[in-house]
Amino acid sequence: MMTDNDIEESLSKAYVSAVAGRAGVLLGDTIKDYGCDGTFHEVANLGGKRVKGSFSIDFQLKASKNCRLESENVVYDLDADTHRKLVFRKQQGGTPIVLIVLVLPANANDWLVHSEDQLLIKQCCYWYVVDDVATENKTTVRIRIPRSQQLTPEAVNALLARVRAGTMI
Questions:
Q1: How far is residue 58's CA from residue 138's CA, in Å, rounded to a whole number?
Q2: Is the pLDDT of residue 169 over 70?
Q3: Residue ranges in 24-116 assigned as alpha helix (H)
Q4: Is the pLDDT of residue 125 over 90?
Q5: What's this model's pTM, rounded to 2 decimal places?
Q6: Distance of CA 155 to CAs 119, 127, 151, Å?
């Protein structure tokens, strides 16, 4: 049987895949994880045919049962090395990258609920863009993700629209 960390990763990938599918965007996977777990690609219309568009957003994916929900924010202790990689990517100015965190219930038995009527992954994914300053911490950096930044199909399309408009940093 897989470890809890491996199960968390699998559930986070399934969540993101479902959201991307509903958003109508392509989901690209990476073979090696060098600080990027995947990419959302827009789909463009070329003379009535669908093609992979030019605009995309990379993402780093995390899942945790150890997040704390405040009234306005999700509090998450991000690995300091991951934070530095995200800041480095942001400073490079190429393809934008966001952090996606799947907040899971404390009890692993509650992570996935299924019946003939539904398949439910609990609780919620949130997206976050790091600031421009890399942490000097050695182990973790505490981040606060606004709870309004839920990863929804609408949010994915809005982020891609920001990339297209040149306002996504």
A1: 25
A2: no
A3: 80-92
A4: yes
A5: 0.95
A6: 21, 9, 6
